């Protein structure tokens, strides 16, 4: 069966050299013999229409068969489809089950994804599951998982709180270029969480994170400026940071609400009820949308 898969791949990669061979026929033979990779490749071909008429229903059939036979890439692909509702209704619980199956086999991407899935659901027990999977992925060197595990450690969500360890993990992920980890490292320095308070160093890191695209870092900087005083120059600087937060992430609800408030009261910007109302309505719309997504 492996030779069928090999031949099918060659036919797909070098069709001019194998113009008398039909790669789909080889894949169908392999799939019918319960070869997991053959089933997965056939599912991909059916979904994309490569060498065969597109058939989403049949593609799902073979993808499911491949996942049931334990092929990690098929399990992850199936989970992704279930989360997005691609070609079928969304089913978050089943998606997590397939991700967990791949994660149990040690697939680091699946471990990260299943942790993220549990985090999105946000219940107490879910945070504990998320912490477990983030920790496993982090132990394999995944620095995105390292960062996310640190966020749980910092506040004790699903795991015993340990601000010192969280700060050290933020540093590790930040050095690897993870922007939000740089933001969190800066915030820890500002608040003295897990490390001695150092306002100057914290602000410097927040500015670096904002420059690299962190909307939350820009919003935090705006809040710091507002805490200083509300003189005209200070108010303008605060508004500029909040505007940057909205620009970096137009769907940042907190930033939209802050900017709406600034326009409502003319704080650092020219007063405008119309702009204030428009920004507030967008924020409310996003909040409603997010609440619907969370319930799916």
Number of helices: 16
- The tally of strands reads 0
Radius of gyration: 25 Å
Helix and strand sequence: HHHHHHHHHHHHHHHH
Mean pLDDT: 87
Low-confidence stretches: 14-21
Structural account:
It is a single chain. It contains 16 helices and no strands. The protein has 296 residues and is mostly helical. It is globular, with a radius of gyration of 25 Å.
Question: What topology does this entry show?
Answer:
Blueprint: H1 2-13, H2 23-32, H3 36-48, H4 56-68, H5 72-84, H6 92-104, H7 108-121, H8 124-139, H9 143-155, H10 163-175, H11 179-191, H12 199-211, H13 215-228, H14 232-248, H15 253-265, H16 273-295
Helix pairs in contact: 1-2, 2-3, 3-4, 4-5, 5-6, 6-7, 7-8, 8-9, 9-10, 10-11, 11-12, 12-13, 13-14, 14-15, 15-16
Report a brief summary of the structure.
By secondary structure, this protein is mostly helical. It has 16 helices and no strands. 75% of the residues lie in helices and 0% in strands.
């Amino acid at each position: 069966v492996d030779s069928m898969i090999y031949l099918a791949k060659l036919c797909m990669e070098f069709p001019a050299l194998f113009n008398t061979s039909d790669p789909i026929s080889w894949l169908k033979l392999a799939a019918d013999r319960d070869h997991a990779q053959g089933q997965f490749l056939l599912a991909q071909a059916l979904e994309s229409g490569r060498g065969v008429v597109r058939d989403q229903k049949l593609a799902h059939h073979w993808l499911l068969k491949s996942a049931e036979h334990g092929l990690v890439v098929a399990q992850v692909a199936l989970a992704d489809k279930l989360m997005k509702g691609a070609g079928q209704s969304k089913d978050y619980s089943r998606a997590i089950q397939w991700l967990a199956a791949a994660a149990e086999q040690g697939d680091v991407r699946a471990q990260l994804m299943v942790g993220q899935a549990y985090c999105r659901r946000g219940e107490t027990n879910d945070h504990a599951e998320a912490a477990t999977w983030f920790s496993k992925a982090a132990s394999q060197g995944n620095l995105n998982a390292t960062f996310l595990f640190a966020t749980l450690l910092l506040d004790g969500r699903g795991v015993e709180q340990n601000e010192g360890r969280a700060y050290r993990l933020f540093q590790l992920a930040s050095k690897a270029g993870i922007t939000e980890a740089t933001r969190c490292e800066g915030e820890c320095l500002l608040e003295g969480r897990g490390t001695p308070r150092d306002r100057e160093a914290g602000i410097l890191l927040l500015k670096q994170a904002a420059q690299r695209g962190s909307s939350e870092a820009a919003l935090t900087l705006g809040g710091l400026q507002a805490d200083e005083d509300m003189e005209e120059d200070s108010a303008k600087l605060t508004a500029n940071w909040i505007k940057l937060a909205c620009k970096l992430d137009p769907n940042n609800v907190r930033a939209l609400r802050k900017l709406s408030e600034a326009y409502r009261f003319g704080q650092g910007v020219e007063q405008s009820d119309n702009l204030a109302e428009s920004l507030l309505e967008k924020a409310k719309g996003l909040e409603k949308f997010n609440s619907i997504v969370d319930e799916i």
